[in-house]
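Help needed: design a sequence for this.
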């Protein structure tokens, strides 16, 4: 494991697609994108976009460091979650109001890496997080979600998204 500051560093690194010809096919339930950073060549990253047709627009987008497979950031729409009910000295003050909070499926939330806890154990409401997409109203929004998430994690290569099949 590593520090919260190191996780923030990893998120901030500029990321380039491993294969520039990769196409995100939104008709698939799962898309996996591999990235590297020219600023820190030891680091490799994965972004995974999953959607579930059974639950309208249940979507999760996940960013993880690929060497140790530790999740760094995830945004969930239509997922439920329970935050830890205990506080370690590594817990940032802005998360303290959410100790033990239960997120119901109708409350989009963002998971964060916090040192001392299992990866992505902590979440806050998406409404209280600096991210431009706050809800998914139709399938077209998933394309926008992926692009904005790419901005958030500093993806510098263009993302090719096929929306015609869904």
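Sure. Designed sequence:
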């Amino acid at each position: 494991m590593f520090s919260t500051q190191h996780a923030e560093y990893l998120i901030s690194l500029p990321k380039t697609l491993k294969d520039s010809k990769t196409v995100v096919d939104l008709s698939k339930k799962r898309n996996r994108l591999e990235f590297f950073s020219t600023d820190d060549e030891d680091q490799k990253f994965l972004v995974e976009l999953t959607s579930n047709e059974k639950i309208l627009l249940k979507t999760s987008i996940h960013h993880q460091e690929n060497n140790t497979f530790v999740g760094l950031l995830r945004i969930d729409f239509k997922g439920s979650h329970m935050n830890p009910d205990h506080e370690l000295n590594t817990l940032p003050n802005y998360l303290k109001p959410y100790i033990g909070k239960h997120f119901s499926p109708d409350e989009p939330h963002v998971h964060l890496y916090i040192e001392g806890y299992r990866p992505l154990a902590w979440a806050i409401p998406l409404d209280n997080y600096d991210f431009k997409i706050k809800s998914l109203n139709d399938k077209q929004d998933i394309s926008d979600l992926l692009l904005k998430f790419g901005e958030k994690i500093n993806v510098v290569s263009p993302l090719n998204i096929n929306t015609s099949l869904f």
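The longest strand covers residues 44-52.
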